[in-house]
């Protein structure tokens, strides 16, 4: 009788393989993308600890782990947010994409003129209640990528057409990049490059994409040359 009871108890304990399958089942999406996210998160922890160890030692009386703990906390919080968001139906994000995009424009304008200046760049807004600063360009990039993805999804039948397919997609990119550029040129270039990659995935005409790159190189080259000369 005791043997039967023990067998029953052990049979109810999930095997490691069963636990793995359960975790994979709960985490929707591409497992390779999840692997990349976890790998980059671990690398960020190591990089922050390596880069801030001496600074933390000087500022916090020998405590070299304070920035490490902060990075681990923010990383865990970020992974939790990613997990819960990926469980939400993607159509909900599609519905609010336009709202987020139009909110991001006045936020960037406000940041450009009244934002907190850190490292010689006005890129931040300080939240008085929780005493934290946020980089509005990160919010704007997320809103932009959601918005142009929605636009391309709606315009697949005319996506190869310059007026009906390309202009409605590239115009928001130009607006956001133009507002980010005065404070952070590299961030604006990265945002534009990511947007063009999304367009390529969204079946936008390659000719239109290459034309955009060619036109964008002119002002970028001018700005870089002026910066080098001064």
Written description of the protein model:
The longest helix has 29 residues, at about 30-60. The chain has about 230 residues and is mainly α. Residues about 5-15 have low confidence and may be disordered. A 3-stranded antiparallel sheet has the order 1-2-3. It is built from 9 helices and 3 strands; from the N terminus they run αααααβββαααα. Helix 3 runs antiparallel to helix 4 (about 65-85), helix 5 crosses helix 6 (about 135-155) and helix 5 crosses helix 7 (about 160-180). Helix content is about 75%, strand content about 5%. It has 2 domains: about 10-85, no CATH class; about 90-230, no CATH class. The protein is globular and about 60 Å long.
């Amino acid at each position: 009788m005791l043997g039967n009871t023990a067998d029953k108890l052990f049979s109810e304990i999930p095997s490691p393989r069963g636990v793995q399958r359960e975790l994979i089942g709960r985490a929707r999406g591409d497992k390779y993308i999840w692997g990349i996210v976890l790998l980059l998160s671990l690398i960020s922890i190591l990089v922050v600890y390596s880069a801030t160890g001496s600074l933390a030692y000087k500022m916090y009386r020998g405590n070299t782990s304070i920035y490490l703990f902060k990075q681990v906390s923010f990383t865990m919080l970020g992974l939790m947010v990613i997990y819960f968001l990926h469980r939400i139906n993607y159509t909900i994000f599609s519905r609010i994409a336009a709202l987020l995009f139009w909110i991001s424009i006045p936020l960037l304008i406000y940041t450009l003129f009244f934002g907190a200046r850190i490292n010689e760049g006005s890129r931040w807004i300080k939240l008085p209640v929780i005493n934290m600063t946020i980089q509005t360009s990160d919010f704007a990039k997320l809103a932009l990528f959601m918005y142009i993805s929605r636009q391309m999804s709606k315009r697949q039948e005319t996506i190869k057409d310059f007026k009906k397919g390309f202009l409605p997609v590239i115009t928001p990119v130009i607006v956001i990049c133009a507002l980010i550029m005065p404070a952070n040129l590299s961030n604006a270039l990265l945002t534009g490059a990511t947007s063009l990659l999304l367009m390529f995935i969204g079946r936008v005409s390659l000719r239109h994409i290459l034309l955009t790159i060619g036109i964008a190189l002119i002002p970028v080259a001018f700005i870089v040359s002026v910066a080098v000369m001064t």
